[in-house]
Each structure stands twice: as C-alpha cells, then as structure tokens.
Write a structure and sequence with these properties.
- There is one protein chain.
- The chain has 575 residues and is mainly beta.
- The chain has 5 helices and 28 strands.
- A 4-stranded antiparallel sheet has the order 1-28-27-26, with no helix packed on it.
- Helix 1 runs antiparallel to helix 3 and helix 3 packs across helix 4.
- The protein starts with a helix and ends with a helix.
- The relative contact order is 0.13.
C-alpha cells in the first residue's frame, strides 16, 4: 500500500513537474524579500563542503580571505609559495615564498569542485597575493598588498616596497584569465594598496590603508602626504575590457592613523568604507566628526554614485561608541542594508539589541545593522553572539545578503562541531565560530551557530574558523586560516594534522525547511519519496533522512504529518 501511494504521488508530481522552479540554496535572490527570502527565514543551515587547496602545504594560510557569488566560491592563500604565474600554473614549484595564490571552486547541485588556481602575471616572493578577494559573477578581484612595483605600466619596477596592487580576473565559460593589473594613481612605499577589495559588476574598489594624504572627500589632492596612515580608497570602472580609475576617495574627517579603507563593500552605486582606527566620540549617523576623544573607536562611511560622480552620503558610528572598539573593521552591503563589525567592542550583551553599555566582556565584539530610506540611514539592530565571551572577536568578519547576515568570531573557543552544537563548551581556545542571523520585517534573530567539522585541528590555539566569512544568497563560506590538515581538494581527510596552518574553508547552505524533505537544499521531485516516508513511515523517513526533522513534512503546518499535507506539498512544488 505504501509503495502504491508512493507511485501515485510520484506520478502526480511528474505530471506537474514542468511548472516547478526549484528553490535551491546559492542562487542570487531578489532584493524585494520575496518567497525565496521567506524560505530562508524558515530554513535550516547544513554543511555542504570542506575545501582545501590543490597544493596544500604548511603555513600557506588558505582561507585567510574568501568570497562567494552564486555557485562560485573563491578562497585565497596569501602565504602560498609557488613561483607559478597566471592561471593553472605549476603548483609544486615553491621558489617564491609568500607570493600567494587564489583558488576558484564551483558548485553543481550540491557538489563542489576546484575550477582554477590563480596567480598574478608578475607574481613574486612576498607579494601576499590573496590578502583580500572579491567576486561578482564572472569577475574576480584579488589584492596583493605587499606587491612592490612603482607603476601599473611596469610591473617589473620594484622601487616602492609594499605599495601594493590588485588584479582583475574574468571567466569565459570555465576558463579564467587576468584582465587588469591595478595600481594606485600615486603608488607609494608601504601604502598597502590591496589590503581590501570589493567588486560589483563593472566596478571595483581597492583600499590602501596606509596611504598618507591629507585630502578629504572625493578626488582631492593626493600629493600632500602629511597625514600618515590616514588611508584611501580607489574606485575603478570597466568599459568593455578596459579599466579606468573613476574616483579617489578619502574620509570627510581624514586623520592620521585612521586606516580609512580597512574594509570596503560595493553594491551598485553605493560604496561602504570602514576606518577601524578613527577616533571620534560621535554616536549614530552623521554625528560630530571632530571630537577625537574616543581613540580607535572606528567609523564607516557611505558613498553614492550619481552618473560618474561619487559623494559621501553618511558617516556611521556605533550606538555605543567606545574607545578601541574598532567599529568599521569589517563592512558589508546588500541593497539598502549595511552591516558594520566592531570586533573589539566590550559589552556582555547577547542576541539582538541588548544592553550595549555593560562593558564586562573585553573584545567580545559586536555587529551593527543600518538601513536606508531614501537618502537617510538609521541603525536597525545591534547584534551580539548568543554565547558572548571576552576575546571572541565577534564581528571581525561580516556578510549580508538580503535578509540574511553572517558574522565571524575567529577567537571563539567552542569545542563542538557543525551546526547549532553546544555553545557552552569552551574547550578549544581560538577554534572560532560563525553566527547566522535572519531578518523578519525589521527584527533580526539568530538562525544558526556554525563551527568547523573538525574544530581546533592540531594546533594548541585553534584554527580561527570565521576569520573571513562570505555570503551570497543562501551560501555561506567561512575560512579557518590556521587549520592543519594535509588534505587536498574537496571533502578530503580532515583528521591528519601534519600541515600546520595550511588552512581550510567550509561551505554551508541555508536550505528551505518546508518542502525540503530530503535536506538537499532543493524543493523538487527528489522530495516526493521522502514526503511519503514522512507521511506513512516516520521510522523509515528518519533512517533515510537523518539530517531532517519529521516536522519538515508538516506542510500546513498544523502540528501533524497527515493526508492534509499532500495538497500543500503539491502546491509548493507547483506555485
């Protein structure tokens, strides 16, 4: 009888299948918060892949930077040593120490595979290629903040140590190639251009945190180097295959040591820049910028483009500004939502909108959410980890995509693994964690507490999972730059810790709950048999779908799995 009903349901589903558009994690989602977005709000987070370099070696720091766009993930290893140049060169030639590399992975359904191994065309020892990375569709940008050339026209001219560079790669089909080599319009020694990068479509932003000019605003005088370490950001645009500089951007309150450009994020015509060592005591949006009584409290700046002209729209500070909080150490943007991390904020609050004035948890960290209405920005949320603890550095890395937010806390000490484990187990110092939040209306709630599948590895101080985090649609990537396994490629052996600080990255998918009966992150015909198992034989369902709760079959939901759920299931398959 069970098989007969299974067959009937399957046939019914097959007849209706042409109308079905599967909801699959990782697809870019609408900015208007539609059906797919609500699916994420009611979703679950599942581990999808464990990524390693194809040439894993000790101290490469694979996973120090990561980026995701749709079904593509990019992971960088700035201390990789090969002397290769360009795409898919010889990975075994370790003649250029700390030259750095980037690795591109692609997903087909839920399976990940490496697509490319990238080096710059002027790769040299010590360049740190991969200190920062960003991706948008088929365009990838990589920062090399220790690159030494004095000009973009002559990459062999190493006259300006640590000036820095950035490289643009593009994909044609499955083949990647370098399209552009970017330098500051006035490269200088130790400017660290490329310390941060961002890309969206045909626009790239590059941060130079130790640039020294006294200019303020957009396209000021770059030649006056009287304000050491003030920092700058350079914006480039592409026409065809040609990149040109569009803007040279400075803070509205340029100050020595502010490191404007610590972090950058782009979405369309909006740019967000963090300056983690900015000193003003202002709070909220567009406060007084001249009171420098809160050393290294940090700030973030929002710029908008009208045509080809950029201007500052907002000056953002924490609602509980405090000295040494480093607000702006990380930033992310999605539409009219900006997220800013302050990894050394000290409050002992937990969850959303707690008491930010209780500074009993030194360097616990916090995340702030701002939203735009018209041209006006306001703070929407103040977020803390569910297990706030001193020294965790929650907010060191952040990502936002629509109504989903992820924050890394690379020094969190949890010894558990996977998704939503025991948060009170502080047995592995610096193992690291990441936290996923979702927004419903204007309210943010924590959806998941993420750990590596192999937390801690073999190092006494932990793997630093969450050092970078990246988010695109329903796909999350988290790097663990001090992870130690000697595995290569995808889903290798995690337990052999013979490659100290080789590094790793982990991919998670936020999957719809209702309708995702076999927990493969898609609502499609593969769920039909699982649905019937939930309906007729819960024990069999639990056996074959151990990662799924039986409530996934409660399609109404009304608290039970019964025949009334059949039509609801078919309605989901065929909107």
């Amino acid at each position: 009888m069970g098989r007969g009903l299974r067959t009937a349901l399957a046939l019914a589903g097959l007849m209706l299948a042409p109308a079905n558009a599967a909801l699959r994690a990782g697809e870019d989602e609408p900015e208007d918060g539609g059906q797919a977005r609500s699916g994420l709000r009611s979703g679950i987070v599942v581990p999808q892949a464990y990524l390693k370099a194809s040439n894993t070696q000790s101290e490469d720091r694979f996973g120090q930077a990561a980026a995701v766009s749709g079904d593509t993930a990019a992971v960088a290893a700035p201390k990789e040593d090969s002397g290769a140049q360009g795409v898919n060169g010889n990975q075994s030639d370790n003649s250029a120490a700390d030259s750095g590399a980037a690795y591109v992975f692609v997903r087909s359904f839920s399976a990940w595979a490496q697509q490319a191994y990238l080096k710059s065309l002027n790769s040299e020892a010590g360049d740190g290629f991969g200190e920062s990375i960003g991706i948008s569709g088929d365009t990838l940008v990589v920062g090399a903040y220790h690159e030494d050339s004095g000009a973009a026209g002559n990459p062999a001219d190493n006259s300006r140590s640590g000036a820095g560079a950035a490289y643009v790669f593009v994909r044609n089909g499955t083949a990647w190639g370098q399209q552009a080599y970017l330098k500051a319009s006035h490269p200088d020694i130790d400017d660290w251009y490329g310390k941060s990068v961002a890309v969206d479509g045909d626009t790239v932003a590059v941060g130079a945190v130790f640039e020294d000019s006294a200019a303020t605003g957009v396209n000021g005088n770059a030649s006056d180097n009287s304000v050491s370490g003030s920092g700058a950001v350079y914006v480039y645009v592409r026409n065809g295959t040609t990149w040109t500089q569009q803007a040279y951007i400075k803070a509205s309150n340029t100050g020595a040591g502010d490191e404007f450009g610590t972090s950058v994020a782009l979405d369309g015509d909006t740019l967000v820049v963090g300056a983690q060592y900015e000193d003003s005591a202002a709070t909220g949006v567009n406060g007084v910028q001249t009171d420098n009584s809160a050393s290294a409290s940090g700030a973030a700046y929002v710029f908008v483009r009208n045509g080809t002209t950029w201007s500052q729209q907002a000056y953002l500070k924490a609602s509980n500004t405090g000295a040494q909080d480093n607000f702006g150490g990380s930033v992310s943007i999605s539409g009219d939502t900006v997220v800013v991390g302050a990894a050394t904020e000290d409050s002992a609050a937990t969850g959303a909108d707690g008491d930010g004035s209780n500074n009993a948890a030194t360097n616990a960290g916090a995340v702030y959410v701002f939203v735009r209405s018209g041209t006006t920005w306001t703070q929407q949320a103040y977020l803390k980890a569910s297990n706030t603890d001193a020294g965790d550095r929650f907010g060191y890395s952040v990502g936002v995509s629509g109504d989903v937010l992820v924050s890394g806390a690379f020094l969190e000490d949890g010894g558990d693994s996977g998704v939503n484990g025991d948060e009170s187990d502080n047995s592995i110092s610096g193992a690291g964690a990441a936290y996923v939040f979702v927004r419903d209306g204007t309210t943010w709630d924590q959806l998941a507490y993420l750990k590596a599948s192999n937390p801690g590895g073999g190092t006494p101080t932990g793997d630093n999972f969450g050092f970078p985090v990246a988010l695109s649609g329903g796909t999350i990537a988290a790097g663990a730059t001090l992870e130690d396994s000697n595995a290569v490629g995808v889903n290798g052996n995690e337990s052999n810790n013979s490659a100290t600080n080789a590094g790793a990255a982990y991919v998670f998918a936020i999957c719809p709950t209702l309708g995702n009966l076999n927990c493969d992150c898609a609502v499609d015909m593969g769920d039909v048999d699982a649905f019937v198992q939930a309906l007729l034989d819960p024990a069999e369902y639990a056996l074959w779908n151990p990662n799924c709760a039986i409530s996934h079959g409660d399609m109404q939901p009304d608290g039970s799995v019964d025949g009334a759920d059949v039509q609801a299931f078919l309605d989901l398959l065929v909107p």
